[in-house]
Design a protein that fits this description.
There is one protein chain. By secondary structure, this protein is an alpha+beta fold. It has a domain at 51-154: PCu(A)C copper chaperone (Immunoglobulin-like). The chain contains 3 helices and 9 strands; from the N terminus they run αβββββββββαα. Strands 1, 2, 3, 4, 5, 6, 7, 8 and 9 form a 9-stranded mixed beta sheet that branches.
Length: 194
């Protein structure tokens, strides 16, 4: 095989092809340089929101409710990174409030395995954001925090809808109904069997 020297025209074409290839590779790899990587930005990967308050980290917080003026159950997780047991206080609309105890260097999941954290009023319609104030006992730190309000439309959240407490009037009417049905006796028909 015999190699021949390139003439001036061939060297120019090779240089232009190399430059075009270099610019193409830079433009492809430049996307990572110009655009922030999503893995470096913290965000809530689910329906809930997140925030931190001192040693407390609140993750995936949601209020489950049927309406703005109806009770709302707070679900999510509270992580306590301190060496002391703490109580998180969540204050909602119209003076509603609930507390969540969290052991030292531990976490509390606000789901079926814990006592329900119920606000007497959710503070927003389902699909909107409710503003709550969160605080840690023993400190004068508090923060405003927006939490989405969802209803039972999503099947997974339906079980978390707070059930209204029975009132004395509804308890009395249900017991009256039960006694009236118990005392009523059927009368046999004289034409039965004919």
């Amino acid at each position: 095989m015999r190699f021949t020297a390139m003439n001036r025209g061939q060297r120019g074409k090779l240089a232009m092809a190399t430059a075009a290839l270099g610019i193409g590779l830079l433009s492809l790899t430049g996307c990572g340089y110009l655009n922030a990587q999503q893995t470096t930005a913290q965000y809530s990967a689910s329906d809930g929101t997140r925030t931190d308050l001192g040693a407390l980290q609140l993750r995936n917080f949601i209020i489950i409710s049927d309406g703005e003026d109806k009770p709302g159950r707070v679900i999510g997780a509270v992580y306590n990174t301190s060496s002391n047991d703490v109580v998180l206080t969540i204050k909602g609309a119209e003076g509603s409030q609930t507390q969540v105890p969290v052991k030292q260097n531990s976490y509390t999941m606000l789901n079926d395995s814990t006592d329900a954290a119920i606000l007497s009023t959710s503070g927003a319609k389902p699909g909107a954001m409710a503003e709550v104030t969160i605080s840690e006992d023993g400190t004068n730190k508090d923060a405003m925090f927006k939490v989405p309000v969802l209803d039972g439309t999503i099947v997974d959240y339906k079980t978390y809808l707070p059930t209204p407490e029975p009132t004395a009037a509804s308890t009395a009417s249900s017991s009256e109904t039960a006694t009236s049905t118990e005392t009523a006796t059927p009368t046999p028909s004289s034409t039965a069997g004919h």
